[in-house]
Amino acid sequence: FLETFESLLRFAENRTSSLFETAYRPMAKEAAEPVKELFTDLSLYILGAETTVESAVLRFFDSLFPLVYSRLINPGITDLSEDYTECLRLTRQDINPFGRYSKTLVTELSKSLWASRMLSQALSLGVEVINTTEHAALTKECSKALVKMQYCPHCQGLTLIRPCVGYCLNVMRGCLASVSELDMQWRGYISTLEYLTNEVAASHDLETALTGIRNAVNEAVLHAQLNGPQLSATVDKVCGQPKKQEGNLSSDNIVAVKEVTETQTFALAHASLNNKRREFINYMKRSRTFYASIAERLCDGDLVMRDSSTCWNGEDVV
Q: Which family does it belong to (predicted)?
């Protein structure tokens, strides 16, 4: 799942980067870092880091506004100092140059990435539980019972006689009583995983949200360009007027970009996640009774005598 999430993130990142390279070339090189940071933050969010989708998206638009303002709205600016850049970043929060598109992107991504984040954390918890219970501590009574079951027949020269199934189950259930107590919680955990995997593939469509970032960013930049004169007037009042070359080329830089869909790649990514989801749910359903049936699993196979008329019951051959 995590590999698929990462694959989808890289796919969406490449699509978003290509937007600047094809439509907004004057700022493409400088926009590369904010784009990279955005998708790194989204990846960390899915993995459970103490961050939010909103902070990641708004930080991206904070970094994007100085570039849009100085490369597209006022391409004649020659002096873009650190102080002026920081002023533009802070002004973005007040004048909202990207209109509703920044908040819409936050809403769409928050819904779709939440289920992925929860699933990622749930899977990590499952691994932790499995690792913790992999080596069960045996009590003194359990050790005695295991020795009695496995080796007492040898004292009578019965080296080929194996324990009876019922006897084995009694011993193993006693030894694993503390582990089997996890049964109810484990069943609840499996149900939660089923719910989360369905959420990932249901209405909160991760693939659609991630691949839609490119179009949302494009619409946001176009909105800022179309409102360039008003934005410039407000910025001049707040941040002052920077040095400019003669002429203003802003009207020539507005380029409408149609949403590009790489149908085949998108379909493969979508099918990959759906297939993994189905396989995973089926696999986890089979392990629903894992902790309740450990004794049965251990007493199956070579450890006990199943299809025979003789076995060791702890006291004698029966």
A: Belongs to the glypican family.
